[in-house]
Design goal:
- By secondary structure, the protein is of the alpha+beta class.
- It folds into 4 domains: 5-74, Arc Repressor Mutant, subunit A (Orthogonal Bundle), CATH 1.10.10; 82-131, no CATH class; 143-222, SH3 type barrels; 245-320, Alpha-Beta Plaits, CATH 3.30.70.
- It is built from 11 helices and 11 strands.
- It has helices at 5-20, 27-34, 38-55, 82-95, 100-111, 116-131, 143-155, 230-236, 257-263, 285-294, 305-321; strands at residues 59-64, 69-74, 157-163, 172-184, 187-194, 203-206, 210-219, 245-252, 268-273, 276-284, 299-303.
- The strands form 3 sheets. Strands 6-5-4-3-7 form a 5-stranded antiparallel sheet.
- Residues 273-318 form the WCX domain.
- Residues 148-213 form the WYL domain.
- InterPro entries: CBASS_pafABC_assoc_protein, WCX_dom, WYL_dom.
- This is WYL domain-containing protein.
Length: 332
């Protein structure tokens, strides 16, 4: 048997490709397929093992006696497990963050990481959810825009955008200092400072409403002590509506105070009496009002008094909406 370099190259690459795909290599079967001796296959496997060690890919070639095959194991656990992939896929589908075609492509690529014998299992689990996935109404591909916005943030470059607010037909030009791209409640948002106002609060722009984007050849600087921190911003904002930062107190009368702590990461329980909890939290104004109203009679706002009065006015307006029902009869 003549083992030419060409034959050897094809054989080794073939085995390496199948190993990386999660398949096992049976030395006897491999020798028969390539018409070489088992010692030759063993030398090939030793070369693959040496390459993995030298390249530091995080894999180790091991012999699995119960299966009588060689397999790659992830010794550094740097590859997502099947459980992790399934959880990520479920979260992605629920987010509805991307176009159906983009989401489907990403899900397929994530599942391809899992061992082949588990891929069909995951596909079957999410088949119905994937099929019934519904695009958001804007139906825009945002992947590239998210990327270039993120590049501008890293380079601290001032940007110019044409922004179309909901209900308007003419876009508005904005010159911004981009700070972060955040995902929340189905949408991606750009958080930025208006270039005209040095010490203003961050403004929030929905990425899908950006009609045009241009990175200007001008950088901006923010002192380290005043740098924008996405994590702290997320703790204080609800439904991506900003407003003035304020400290509030409220009584929660519901059954799950833990749900409040999860929704408002800055919240603290000050006291508890008769299954009622007194909370304090630091939040941005506009969005928190929406959440408070969604809790109905389970929440009573105490401070600040201005917010309490706003809530009262809104409830009174809602009550007027339900003061009577106009019934139209249809003559048959």
């Amino acid at each position: 048997m003549v083992d030419s370099q060409q034959n050897k190259g094809y054989r080794v690459i073939s085995m390496f490709d199948r190993l990386m795909d999660g398949q096992g290599i049976n030395k006897k079967q491999e020798a028969f397929t390539h018409n070489v001796g088992e010692k030759t296959i063993q030398r090939d496997l030793n070369e693959i093992r040496a390459y993995l060690e030298k390249a530091k890919l995080g894999y180790h070639l091991e012999y699995v006696r119960t299966e009588k095959v060689y397999r790659l194991t992830n010794k550094e656990e740097s590859i997502l497990s099947k459980e992790q992939v399934l959880a990520i896929v479920k979260i992605l589908i629920e987010s509805r963050a991307l176009l159906k075609s983009e989401m489907s492509d990403i899900i397929d690529k994530l599942i391809s990481i899992v061992a082949p014998d588990k891929q069909e299992f995951i596909h079957n689990i999410i088949l119905n959810e994937k099929h019934l996935y519904v695009d958001l109404n804007h139906k825009k591909s945002l992947l590239h825009l998210i990327w270039v916005l993120s590049e501008a943030i890293q380079k601290k470059k001032i940007i110019k955008i044409d922004y179309l607010r909901e209900g308007e037909t003419i876009s508005t030009e904005k010159i911004l200092k981009p700070l972060a791209v955040i995902f929340s409640e189905y949408y991606f948002y750009l958080i930025a400072y208006d270039n005209k106002h040095e010490k203003d609060l961050p403004i929030v722009c929905r990425v899908d409403r950006i009609q045009h984007f241009h990175e200007l050849d001008k950088k901006f600087q923010i002192p380290y002590a005043e740098r924008f921190q996405e994590g702290e911003f997320r703790k204080r904002i609800q439904f991506m509506h900003a407003g003035e930062l304020m400290r509030m107190k409220f009584i929660f009368k519901g059954t799950s105070p833990q749900a409040v702590l999860d929704r408002l990461p800055t919240a603290k329980i000050l006291s508890q009496k008769d299954r009622q909890h007194l909370f304090e939290a630091e939040v941005f104004g506009h969005g928190i009002k929406m959440w408070l109203l969604s809790q109905g009679a389970n929440i009573e706002v105490l401070e600040p008094i201005e917010l309490r009065e706003e809530i009262i006015e809104t409830i009174q307006s809602m009550q007027q909406n339900y003061s009577y029902i106009k019934v139209e009869t249809v003559n048959k």
